[in-house]
Amino acid sequence: MIQSMTGYGRAITELPDRQIHVEIKSLNSKTMDLSIRMAPAYREKEIEVRNEVSGRLERGKVDLSLWIEKKENAEATVIINQALLDSYYKQIVQSAEKFNIPLPADWFPTLLRMPDIMTKSEVQELSEEEWKFVGNTIAEAIDQLIEFRKQEGKALEKKFRENIGNIRNLLEAVTPFEKERVEKVRERITDTLEKVIGVDYDKNRLEQELIYYIERLDINEERQRLTNHLNYFIKTLEGNSGQGKKLGFIAQEIGREINTLGSKSNHAEIQKIVVQMKDELEQIKEQVLNVN
Predict the structure, then answer these.
(1) Cα–Cα distance between 195 and 34 in angstroms, integer?
(2) Inter-residue long-range contacts of 111-116, CB under 8 Å, 24+ positions, other chains counted
(3) Which of 25, 28, 41, 111 could be disulfide-bonded to 290 (CB atoms 3.0-4.6 Å)?
(4) Is 130 helix (H, G, I), strand (E, B) or coil?
């Protein structure tokens, strides 16, 4: 089953003091083009996240965002800056000696009121238990993205089958004109010899030349190759994911046979059919760019 490269996934994990949000979206790209934005607390795990995403999505322009939302009732850890406290203490003692000012009777309240002594820590050491929750959240978001891509892939497959079926039907529509085309070529040449040039000619020699000329205009080989390519396209659709590039190559081969068919047909009605085939093929080429 094919997958689209367009998709979206989101997952949220509840922790006692915060929510972990993961959002991932993807668009079509020839290779894996991955952009990650992570909360500072988890940046040390970015390589691990990149490997996880690249291993599961193969290719596409992928954007992953991971952020934290603090809960309203959550309390941040308060840290006393001991180095700064010691510095304030020494400076107060030196100032008291220099200006002959009595030292504080109760040091602690005085020092705790000094600027930047007490700070709230927003960044905590990442524990393995917390990262396990975050990792599961990332995996869940990727699962949702893949499911989205599968659903989009089903829609693409349905459209591809319709386009291939239309090309196949158009190819069958060429058959009634094939014999008529040969007869018209024969008539046009003989009429030209008899009416325009007005000379006698060797009919046996003419027949040999006609056979050679008509063989050069024969389109049976192109029709057979085109049929084979159409069958191969459908067979590839039914294979594993990751077939986007291969389907693109097959579409190119289909186009090559359609073009040759048109150049050799030498018949107005067949030319019209070829134009319709090209229209169906262009729709395939446009959509196959979005196949993973």
Answers:
(1) 71
(2) 111/85, 112/80, 114/84, 114/85, 114/88, 116/81, 116/84
(3) 28
(4) helix
- From CA 111, how far away is CA 117, in angstroms rounded? 8
Chain mean position to CA 27: 5
pLDDT digits (tens, 9 = 90+) for 83-112: 888 888 888 888 888 888 888 878 778 887
C-alpha pair distances (Å), 11 with each of 31, 70, 138, 192, 257? 25, 16, 7, 76, 47
What's CA 129's distance to the chain center, in Å?
A: 33
Give just the sign of the alpha carbon dihedral 106, 107, 112, 115.
Answer: positive
> Angle CA(23)–CA(24)–CA(26) in degrees, nearest 5?
155
pTM for the predicted model, two decimal places = 0.69
Looking at the domain assignment, is residue 249 inside a domain?
Answer: yes
Determine the structural domain holding residue 68 and report its residue range.
7-74+126-149
**Residue type for 218, please?**
D
Q: Does residue 222 sit in the same domain as residue 251?
A: yes
Helix axes 268-288, 244-265, angle to 10 degrees: 170
Instruction: Give the count of alpha carbons within 13 A of 154, CB side only.
Output: 5
- Alpha-carbon span 30 to 6, nearest angstrom: 13
**What percent of the chain is modeled with pLDDT above 70?**
81
Name the token pair of 54.
């690249």
Euclidean distance between CA atoms 5 and 248, whole angstroms: 14
d(CA 31, CA 212): 49
Is 246 a domain residue? Answer: yes
Based on the fold, state whether residues 182 and 278 are members of the same structural domain.
yes
**Contact status, residue 81 vs residue 117, Cβ threshold 8 Å:** yes
Stated as kind and residue range, the H or E segment containing 98 is helix 82-99
Residue 215 has pLDDT above 80, yes or no: no
Close Cβ partners of 275 (under 8 Å, ≥ 6 residues apart): 262
